[in-house]
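User: We ran a pulldown and think these components assemble together. Before we commit to crystallization trials, I'd like a predicted model of the whole complex to look at. Sequences follow.
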Amino acid sequence: MKDLIKKLTEAYGPSGYEHQMRQIIREEIRGYADEIKTNALGSLTALKRGNGKGKRVMLAAHMDEIGVMVTHIDEKGFCRFAPIGGVFPLTLLGGRVVFGDGTVGVIGMEVKHFERGKTPPLDQFFIDVGAKGKASCPVKVGDAAGFRRPFEDLGDRLVAKTMDDRIGCVILIETLRKLRRCAHDVYFVFTVQEEMTLAGAGTSAYGLNPDMALAVDVTDIGDTPEAHHMAVSLGQGPAIKVQDSGMVAHAGVKELMVRRAEQARLPYQLEVLTGGTTDAMAIQIVREGIPAGCLSVPCRYVHTPSEMVDYGDVQNSVKLLLAILGKAIEL
Amino acid sequence: MILQELSDAIGVSGHEDAVRKIIAEAVRDHVDELRSDTIGNLFAVRLRPLPRGKKARGAKRAFKVMIAAHMDEVGLMITGFDASGGLRFQPVGGIDDRVLPGKVLLVGPDKIPGVIGAKPVHLLKGDEWKQVVKIDSMVIDIGASSKEEAEKLVKLGQVAAFTTHYNKVGRTATGKAFDDRAGCAVLVELLRGGPAGAGARFPFDLHAVFTVQEEVGLRGARVAASAVEPDCAFVLEGTICDDLPKDKDTSPTTELGKGPAISLMDRSAFADRRLVDHLVATAEKLGIPYQFKQPGVGGTDAGAITRSKAGVPTVSVAVPCRYIHSPVARLSLDDFDNTVRLMRESLKRLTPDVLKRA
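Assistant: Here's a predicted model for the assembly, 689 residues in total across the polymer chains.
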């Protein structure tokens, strides 16, 4: 599974520009699904049919990552940019970005305006793609870039630029590949635009109208030095969401997840996240409402170029999904 | 000219009736269906041409395109009365407190003239020169000398609008509410088939929707998109233009006279890249000028339409307008004409193939 994690986390796919991710995932799931479709906004859905006696279950992981979009190219060929999703200025200086065509840029800052001890705002940064002037600049206004940072295997712990949410995509792909004798129709949905508007998940859920939905995404932790208080740690098992700043998980879904984890003797943690939300928020409130929950992978340094997860948590997330799908679903 | 008529009309969010009436009259003879919904959106539908030799329209579902422009403008709502007869108010939509003092307004359906008074310069002391007067401490003066007198003329909850009249200056025009009467006027021109009134049809069912309440949360577009369920959508706007000289070499958002501004990403939505590419290809083929709007800035009805039901690929196209959300804006009439032209030519060439994915 580590090879797949490396492949997906190093791929290009800022929100709104997920076409390369969609191609990669389509290749990875070829032969495992009964039906593969792309919806109007670009979310990819793979259906694995059940025996007709189960429920219709939607699993969602988002393909997109945070990034930047070029807003202006100055006379000297430097590019100003807007954030795509939650980009923190603190993570930028000296970082590298990569555009869809492979062009690489480094991030510089207006030194004149720098005040010691203060993080400059986003509009004081720029991207330098090595152009010698506006005319020869290889990127254009509107080009989108993701951050560039290689995957690192630290043994039990894995680091990459976009565990959020490629690790969710990997978990969905692994679950699809391992799913056997399942009663339920399971829709594996790889969504778009989560980091900006949650537009992919809500529209996919509307189209599928499932009986239950789970988002699979990363969550914050409280186990680093002087972290905010949060009762989630790396390596203590997948987190079952109780609540975040966008949703209260459906109680029946949450309890089902806890019950299946205990029956399968899998480690798990309960999660209350005070800042942030997931695709499940958008899914929960479409049509007449869809019972939704979230399986979260604890992740350190979310929205930095070095997001860290525990490999055991990832493997147990796949096992927990299989345990949930392997039995009857009564909410 | 329809732009002038629409700019001069008053239609603060939630009170778009006068604008709806003008548009309905302007397009009535050019559409197959004209209707309003409960929230106040105006739908003007032009069906695709009947297939040759067939009485009934094809059994296959028609390709359906929605084009939205919002009728509402930012303004003020009366929220209270002073003992001395002044009207207290709150903004409807995004208004900068700094543009209000010294402005003339028309209040309520009876269009009572009022003015937001400002302290004369003679009386300003010390720091007052540097301070922004907050909206909470302003009143609209309608000449009433008591609360009772004011209440006879104006009712709580009525709205006030700016009074600037449309004025053509060379190849530019100034006026109020170009956001989004410019978009409404472009859409009316598209329905009327241009100055010749030839009534050119498009190869799909066109659902033109003049929406309400965009400035207060994209509310009209939300229900309109849900009703239409289009295959794709265009949003026509009058957008931000910040092209006056600056200290830094940074984005002007859009520039006057450089052509229609195509959106790529704003706070509300991502533009569908296939529709963007279709517009760009059409513009380049025909030599129509165009520009990209600075990504990350503003928001339009596209936000609501994109996320409607199972999702709608959408793009916004706008006429650049300096000083929007203030009592007066300026646009280029060449940009206006080129927006009509770019949209008409792009629509003529719009087929379901444009939305095919590789």
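Chain B touches chain A at residues 231, 249-251, 264-265, 268-270, 272-273, 276, 292, 294-297, 303, 306-313, 357-358 (CB under 8 Å). That may be worth checking against your pulldown data before setting up trials.

User: Thanks, that helps.
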